[in-house]
């Protein structure tokens, strides 16, 4: 896994996963755009969630409710009153923080001179229509859940569902976070994947446990093993106003620490009850806001008892951005692909030391590492490997007097880096933005190029696997470019493929290279689709 969030931020920017919003105007804090690879990864996460939770179950329907809703929704959901975070200002450095995030000390300057907490509503406001008055006032939704609750009766009657059943929805949510930070982790505009699962009162605790298991299984399926998730049984004092019990699934992000990726709440009959009329007749257990505006009773007719009941709700709610950040962190690795020969290491070691000296850095490769460089194989490979990121950084440093040394170092180190070192994103193939990349061994050989392009078109035609063609470098470099974005398979078309190689038996076959093992296999073009189909959805 990644050891620092910077690795992911750099990769995301370098390869086009994530860009800061409105970057050419200085950006917009807490808002990000998903680039060509980011949108694929995000869509794949959402599709996998949808497939698992809607298609592969018998008890789920989907929904896509609007972002703008009648203001009364937010009155009766409790958000107008309670979606507040206590804010404090640091009198010393003027930074503003959420009181529950900082434990009385300003994280920026360390001062304890903070103002008293005061409430701040995190909902964004906007205006509908040309006249700004109280009737035109609206919020951008801070969660997708309410769109499900207010449509409960619509879905129930049109789908003829029986309890228990659920409604799934994916969509944007907006929160005016005080300090958006930590890249995709805390932002102001994000996407949620939410399920509201309606059950008979009394069966809620059992279903809460079942959903906990189902959700852990999904996280495992997309590459976050159970052992990497901690379940936080939220103490009563910290529970949201609607919750009887909540399990937060926590993932340990580099730098950010152990943080919530998904909340699984037992919301009781709070929401359907709050949005109903005639509340006094509904035997509600939750304390709800008295509602004189709703025109509906959000109840379910239970045939067994002949009664109308207000279902309890279990809500698994996950953020797409936090999920994407977690799978990128989890899959990230910088690694040596094969041992570097000792004499090459020694030469680079010398050049590195000279370079470090010239830029005024006293540290050198340690004596031990140098001895190792001269004497042994494996350890020294490791010794330099650990320095390679640093070499890369040094190579990027400007400075006139260092240019010559830098060039020399680059001349020696770069090929070693290219040949022996890689960044790889071990995404589950099902999430990989690109499933297959096809390369021509020679980019100016007409038949090889035409064959490679035909292979790419053929694989893409099935529609299932995003396949690209790339001829912008030597094969080794192309492999590394795909490794770092998580492409599970690379295909190379060579002279053998077109019947002009050494082995005529290889005509019509291509090399398929596996991202994780780096093993290569010859596969007939005619069998490629069958070979890849299951592997790219693993
Ligand atoms: P936090 O305590 O971290 O602010 P929360 O408990 O308010 O989160 P919920 O209201 O439970 O979050 O929202 C459900 C999910 O939506 C979270 O688990 C998270 O994945 C996602 N989410 C919430 N707020 C943000 C945000 N500002 N940026 C990105 N994702 C978010």
CATH architecture of the largest domain: 2-Layer Sandwich
CATH class of the largest domain: Alpha Beta
Low-confidence stretches: 369-377
Q: So what's the overall shape?
A: globular
- Give a list of the ligands: adenosine-5'-triphosphate
Order of strands across the widest beta sheet?
3-9-10-16-13-12-11
CATH topology of the largest domain: BirA Bifunctional Protein, domain 2
Fraction of residues in helix: 25-40%
Q: What is the typical, i.e. mean, pLDDT?
A: 90
Structural domains: how many: 3
Gyration radius, in Å: 28 Å
How much strand content do the residues show?
Answer: 15-25%
Report the biggest beta sheet as strand number plus sense, adding barrel if it closes. 7 strands, mixed
Secondary structure category: alpha+beta
Number of helices: 17
Total beta strands: 23
Short description, anyone?
The protein has helices spanning 5-15, 36-55, 71-76, 79-82, 99-102, 145-150, 152-159, 204-221, 270-274, 320-331, 342-358, 367-375, 378-395, 403-420, 446-461, 475-483, 528-533; strands at 18-20, 32-34, 60-63, 84-89, 96-98, 118-121, 125-127, 137-139, 165-174, 189-199, 229-233, 245-253, 257-268, 300-302, 307-309, 312-319, 332-336, 421-425, 436-440, 467-469, 489-493, 509-514, 520-524. The protein is of the alpha+beta class and 538 residues long. The longest helix has 20 residues, at 36-55.
